[in-house]
């Protein structure tokens, strides 16, 4: 974790730089995955070294614009962000997911950092809203690793039922019970591998798609393990999952802290792990933001609407 500070001349400059409801600084934070706060006329930037350097450079340039003109427009923030991120270097190498040569590429600077973090670390924790590619890119990298024989097994894991893993009330056998909750992982997999190939790998136990509860007591060697919807794990469940890592294995934990379905008295294992594991070598923490959403163009606006506005009746419901 690296930190940097920027001093400001006056309160008005600070307000102009941050923008209405901190919109300008929030864009820098989301694009680079850094933490940006201010106190006593100073801005503090914290995060991974390269991201802090880029964010500091961007904020210094935006500060100069504020000092020169007294205000800062959203278009100027976009221009500075685009120029700086483009100057960081070429995009990450494509992810090869099929023997036929199909490629998946990160489509935003945040996704690019995420892919690089997974490739460079044994454990990567990714936090961000829906549509930012947290699960999709992790599955693509797992398929690539299997294809290149870096691993022997892919394990895709999800809390079977949000907040409780109670499967008994659902109709059908075990597979029928868990399929609705594991479907997003299967959807990503089906975009990257042929149906027959997936079926064969699952029959041979090369690919597993399992509820979190069924991970207890296992040790996974030579495996690429992905935990999706990690915000809905408890602290004890997260500890159990992380300690499944065996020799030559890689773990990706992905979740969205705003989509918490645990009871109010339960602490999220994702939030707890982010604090506990901070600073451990070969553990990367990546934050993806609204600018990394690559679904329909309206999804970014929908996310902003839910973040910035209260329901019309003035009440707030806990999700």
Strands, count: 11
Gyration radius (Cα, Å) is 21 Å
The top level CATH class name of the largest domain? Alpha Beta
Principal-axes shape call: elongated
Structural class: alpha/beta
CATH superfamily placement of the largest domain? P-loop containing nucleotide triphosphate hydrolases
CATH-assigned fold name of the largest domain: Rossmann fold
CATH-scheme architecture of the largest domain: 3-Layer(aba) Sandwich
Q: What portion of residues is helical?
A: 40-55%
Question: What is the number of helical segments per DSSP (H or I, 4+ residues)?
Answer: 11
Describe, in short, the structure shown.
The chain has 319 residues and is α/β, with parallel strands linked by helices. Helix content is 41%, strand content 17%.
Can you describe this structure?
The protein is of the alpha/beta class and 319 residues long. The chain has two domains: 2-86, K Homology domain, type 1 (Ribosomal Protein S8, Chain: A, domain 1, 2-Layer Sandwich); 95-308, 3-Layer(aba) Sandwich (Rossmann fold). The chain contains eleven helices and eleven strands. A hairpin with a 6-residue loop joins strand 4 (95-96) and strand 5. Helix 2 packs antiparallel against helix 3 (49-69), helix 3 (49-69) packs antiparallel against helix 4 (74-86) and helix 5 packs across helix 6 (134-147). The protein is elongated and about 65 Å long.
Which tags fit this structure?
three-stranded antiparallel beta sheet, six-stranded parallel beta sheet, 319 residues, 2 domains, elongated, 41% helix, Ribosomal Protein S8, Chain: A, domain 1, single chain, disordered C terminus, alpha/beta, Rossmann fold
């Amino acid at each position: 974790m690296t930190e940097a500070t920027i001093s400001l001349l006056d309160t008005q400059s600070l307000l102009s730089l941050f923008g209405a409801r901190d919109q300008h600084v929030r864009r820098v934070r989301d694009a680079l995955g850094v933490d940006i706060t201010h106190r006593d006329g100073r801005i503090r930037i914290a995060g991974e070294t390269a991201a802090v350097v880029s964010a500091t450079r961007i904020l210094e340039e935006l500060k100069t614009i504020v000092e020169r003109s007294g205000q800062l427009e959203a278009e100027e923030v976009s221009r500075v962000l685009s120029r700086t991120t483009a100057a960081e270097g070429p995009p990450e190498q494509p992810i090869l997911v099929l023997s036929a040569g199909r490629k998946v590429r990160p489509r935003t600077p945040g996704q690019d950092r995420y892919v690089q973090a997974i490739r460079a670390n044994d454990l990567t924790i990714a936090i961000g809203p829906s549509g930012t590619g947290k699960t999709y890119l992790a599955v693509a990298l797992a398929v690539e690793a299997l294809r290149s024989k870096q691993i022997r097994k892919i394990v895709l894991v999800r809390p079977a039922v949000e907040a409780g893993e109670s499967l008994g009330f659902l109709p059908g056998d075990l597979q029928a019970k868990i399929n609705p909750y594991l479907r997003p992982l299967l959807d990503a997999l089906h975009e990257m591998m042929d149906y027959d190939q997936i079926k064969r790998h699952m029959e041979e136990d090369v690919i597993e798609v399992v509820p979190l509860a069924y991970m207890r007591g296992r040790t996974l060697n030579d495996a690429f393990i992905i935990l999706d919807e990690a915000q809905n794990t408890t602290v004890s469940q997260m500890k159990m999952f992380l300690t499944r890592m065996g020799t030559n294995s890689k773990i990706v934990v992905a979740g969205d802290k705003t989509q918490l379905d645990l009871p109010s008295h339960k602490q999220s294992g994702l939030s707890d792990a982010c604090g506990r594991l901070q600073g451990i070598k070969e553990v990367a923490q990546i934050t993806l933001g609204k600018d990394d959403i690559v679904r329909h163009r309206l999804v970014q606006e929908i996310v902003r609407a839910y973040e910035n506005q209260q329901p019309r009746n003035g009440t707030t419901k806990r999700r």
